[in-house]
Design a protein that fits this description.
By secondary structure, the chain is mainly alpha-helical. The protein is 68% helix and 7% strand.
């Protein structure tokens, strides 16, 4: 038994030695890596500053915080607290302004019931370069349908 264990340890040690061995970097490839990293960095900065991304991120955050809400009043208190906190910030950033705008939209459309209801039987499926992209959305529609059917029967 000890020989198998020792052999496994030796193999693992040799593997780690190879993985951690410093590699020579081709100077031309290093330049390629640094340039693509800059392209990537520039794009991420634009992406994170995009109003739609900021609003989407707010909704994803709100979804996580309201997942356990059992009543409309609980949901309302979370959104109302967001608005309250954001309106009392003296010098809001551009991102905070966009998040406040989204929170106010959620409050008007959802809490005050001014928005449309999503139709059962549809999902959040979108085309992206001839691919179907599906999102779960703010809630699991299939689970909501099952719960509704269970209550009705």
């Amino acid at each position: 038994m000890k020989t198998k264990s020792t052999r496994k340890k030796r193999i693992l040690a040799n593997f780690m030695k190879e993985v951690n061995k410093p590699q020579e970097i081709n100077p031309k490839m290093e330049s390629v890596c640094l340039r693509i990293h800059q392209v990537y960095s520039d794009l991420i900065k634009k992406y994170l500053a995009d109003p739609v991304v900021i609003q989407y991120n707010y909704l994803e955050n709100l979804k996580a915080r309201t997942k356990k809400c059992a009543t409309p009043e609980e949901f309302e208190s979370v959104v109302r607290a967001d608005i309250e906190i954001m309106t009392h910030i003296e010098q809001r950033t551009a991102i905070e302004d966009m998040e406040l705008e989204m929170a106010q939209k959620v409050y008007a459309d959802v809490v005050e019931e001014k928005g449309l209801e999503f139709e059962y039987g549809h999902d959040l499926s979108f085309k992206y370069d001839n691919q179907d992209i599906k999102y779960l959305g703010f809630f699991d529609l299939d689970e909501i349908k099952k719960e509704k059917e269970a209550k009705e029967s």
